[in-house]
């Protein structure tokens, strides 16, 4: 608890006037339950990831270290008819990461105003625009990056105006127009009607992401014998001529009252290489090859301990990266995670030890306040 | 005389009917068209402790429910449950995720209470066959012991034993069993309070017996029944509000 207070004091030095949450044992529950908060509230997170990377014997340097300290500050205010939300992140990189990313990085993830009008919700500012099923390998994802150390890590937003028109309790239309951070690209725009039918969320998407880059397709997620989901996107030029397609199909099921959760996801990208010699990184693709499988096994041991093993399998060069991890809640809001990664292949394969190291170990300490 | 003869000859009929009467009164205590609540949940294992705070709304015995977490670690996380479907909103991602139905039996936010325990109110008289198994004192209060055996496939538990206070018809203790007869959880209810014509517990203590040294305590800070809760709360739109 003292640690948490120390973090708050460090971060709030000179920031008096904001209402911030103290220790959970004594915050005023009744005040927090009111939707119309009296003032801007501040919360945040401190996260430190320390990495050890063991490179193959064939390389000159075998032991590499890196560290990234992330400070996240969130401001928000909610009223019945509008809300404000801002999320800024400061990264301090040392070791190998400093060579790649520099010592300090600043990232504005969100800053938006949302107005809940009688005719729908308008969001203006830097906001996350997402179409389709959120999560891994979504063909409609605008930011196609994967963080192997945190598969759920939130993606940065776009500077956009978004409009959501609800037409039933669980159905609605989402429309947006916006820009990337640098504003010098062609404006993006997209439209997606979403429906809820039976036990399924499903919808259609049309997204214009740049000159001659459009994706159009369908998605669904729901329950049959297990949780199932699927997405199919067709890439088209501005004359609506076919370029390539991208698809994903997944299934999930849990055992022992949700304590063991298993997931399998298959991903197809027609633009991906069919041979490892043709691998070419692109911001338009999650990874390099045409076919992938992702397998996940999560074991929630109890309220405080959990373990998981995730595997990415490149089905073109048959390389894999195995990501076992173990997490413990060591105090209210304070989580300790250990994660390792093992690449299985050598040389030119995507998940090769020559590129990713023989193994990587990461220790994460994360405190929310 | 004929009535007396009938009761003497068929005591099981008498008990069965009484058991139904008792369980209907338990159901009546739990029945609501709408509710609003504010609660604190303390999850403990040995000396470790996590505290969650939330407020929420329910309709039609929990067929629809909406909850928002307010403790600093989970602030702004919202749940919308409609029948047996669940959506979760994560404020840092500003995104809504549909959760697969099989996950509803998972402990909510790592607690000993599953999403189903928390958000669904079974009509016991319709869901279970009922048997009066006797009487016992629980913390000084005279209680009926009622055994419930599931009549339908999707009942929350295969069997439950309820120790029901004879004055308030609130179960002071509940034992939940799996199909094979293994006891899964125990629930104890404290601080019984009257709200209008019904009684409810302000403090509930739950132990999942499959977990060692683990327990969850729910403290209800505010509870209102049958108030005007707009349908617009139970929508996808309200998750992003």
Structural class of chain A: mainly beta
Mean pLDDT of chain B: 85
**CATH T-level topology of chain A:** Porin
User: N- to C-terminal separation of chain B?
Assistant: 66 Å
| Count of distinct structural domains of chain A | 1
Count of domain modules of chain B: 1
Q: Point out poorly predicted stretches of chain A.
A: 1-34
Counting H and I runs of at least 4 residues, what is the number of helices of chain A? 4
Average pLDDT for all residues of chain A: 86
Give the chain pair forming the largest contact, with residue counts. A-B, 63 and 51 residues
Oligomer: heterodimer
| CATH architecture designation of chain A | Beta Barrel
> Percent of residues of chain A in beta strands?
over 45%
Structural class of chain B: alpha+beta
Give the C-level CATH assignment of chain A.
Mainly Beta
Strand content of chain B: over 45%
The rough form of chain B would be described as globular
Distance from first to last alpha carbon of chain A: 10 Å
Explain this structure to me?
The complex is a heterodimer of chains A (369) and B (241). With 369 residues, chain A is mainly beta. Chain A has a single domain, classed as Beta Barrel (Porin). Chain A is built from four helices and 19 strands. Residues 1-34 of chain A have low confidence and may be disordered. Chain B is an alpha+beta fold and 241 residues long. Chain B has a single domain, classed as Lipoprotein localisation LolA/LolB/LppX (outer membrane lipoprotein receptor (LolB), chain A), CATH 2.50.20. Chain B has five helices and 13 strands. A 13-stranded antiparallel β-sheet of chain B has the order 6-5-4-3-2-1-13-12-11-10-9-8-7. In chain B, a hairpin with an 8-residue loop joins β8 (141-150) and β9 (159-165). Residues 1-16 of chain B have low confidence and may be disordered. The chains are: A mainly beta (369), B alpha+beta (241). At the A-B interface, α2, β3, β4, β5 and β11 of A face β1, β2, β6 and β13 of B.
């Amino acid at each position: 608890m003292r640690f948490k207070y120390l973090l708050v004091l460090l971060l709030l030095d000179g920031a008096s006037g904001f209402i911030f949450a103290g220790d959970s044992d004594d915050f005023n529950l009744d005040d927090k339950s009111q939707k119309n908060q009296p003032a801007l509230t501040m919360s945040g997170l401190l996260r430190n990831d320390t990495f050890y990377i063991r490179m193959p014997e064939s390389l000159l340097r075998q032991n590499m270290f890196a560290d990234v300290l992330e400070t996240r500050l969130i401001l928000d205010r909610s009223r019945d008819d509008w809300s404000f939300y801002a999320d800024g992140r400061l990264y301090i990189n040392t070791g190998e990461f400093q060579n790649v990313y520099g010592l300090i990085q600043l990232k504005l993830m969100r800053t938006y105003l949302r107005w809940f009008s009688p005719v729908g919700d308008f969001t203006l500012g830097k906001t996350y625009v997402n179409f389709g099923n959120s999560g891994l390998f979504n063909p409609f994802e605008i930011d196609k990056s994967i963080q192997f150390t945190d598969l759920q890590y939130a993606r940065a937003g776009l500077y956009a105006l978004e409009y959501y028109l609800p037409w039933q309790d669980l159905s609605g239309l989402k429309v947006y127009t916006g820009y990337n951070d640098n504003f010098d690209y062609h404006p993006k725009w997209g439209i997606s009607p979403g429906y809820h039918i039976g036990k399924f969320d499903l919808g259609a998407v049309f997204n214009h992401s740049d000159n001659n880059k459009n994706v159009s397709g369908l998605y669904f997620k729901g329950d049959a014998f297990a949780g199932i989901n699927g997405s199919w996107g067709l890439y088209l030029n501005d004359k609506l001529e076919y370029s390539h397609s991208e698809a994903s199909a997944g299934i999930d099921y849990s055992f022992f009252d949700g304590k063991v959760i298993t997931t399998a996801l298959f991903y197809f990208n027609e633009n991906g290489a069919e041979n490892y010699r043709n691998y070419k990184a692109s911001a338009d693709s999650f990874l390099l090859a045409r076919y992938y499988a992702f397998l996940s096994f999560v074991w929630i041991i109890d309220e405080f301990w959990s373990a998981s093993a995730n595997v990415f399998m490149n089905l073109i060069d048959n390389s894999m990266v195995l990501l076992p991890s173990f997490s413990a809640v060591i105090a209210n809001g304070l989580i300790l995670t250990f994660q390792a990664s093992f690449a299985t292949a050598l040389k030119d394969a995507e998940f090769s030890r020559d590129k990713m190291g023989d193994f990587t170990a990461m220790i994460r300490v994360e405190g929310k306040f | 005389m004929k009535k007396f003869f009938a009761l003497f000859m068929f005591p099981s009929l008498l008990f069965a009917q009484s058991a139904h009467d008792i369980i209907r009164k338990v159901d009546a205590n739990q029945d609501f068209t709408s509710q609003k609540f504010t609660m604190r949940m303390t999850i403990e294992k040995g000396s470790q402790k996590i505290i969650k705070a939330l407020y929420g709304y329910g309709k039609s015995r929990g067929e629809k429910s909406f909850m928002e977490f307010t403790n600093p670690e989970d602030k702004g996380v919202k749940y919308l449950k409609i029948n047996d479907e669940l959506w979760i909103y994560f404020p840092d991602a500003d995104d809504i995720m549909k959760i697969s139905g099989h996950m509803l039996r998972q402990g909510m936010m790592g607690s000993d209470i599953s999403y189903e325990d928390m958000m669904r109110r079974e009509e016991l008289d319709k869901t279970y066959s009922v048997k009066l198994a006797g009487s016992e004192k629980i913390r000084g209060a005279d209680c009926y012991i009622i055994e419930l055996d599931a009549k339908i496939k999707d009942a929350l538990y295969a069997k439950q034993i309820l120790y029901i206070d004879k004055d308030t018809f609130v179960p002071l203790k509940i034992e939940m069993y799996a199909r094979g007869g293994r006891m899964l959880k125990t629930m104890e209810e404290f601080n019984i309070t009257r709200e209008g014509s019904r009684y409810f517990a302000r403090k509930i203590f739950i132990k999942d017996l499959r977990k060692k040294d683990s327990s969850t305590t729910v403290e209800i800070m505010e509870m209102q029944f049958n108030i005007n809760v707009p349908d617009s709360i139970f929508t996808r739109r309200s998750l992003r509000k």
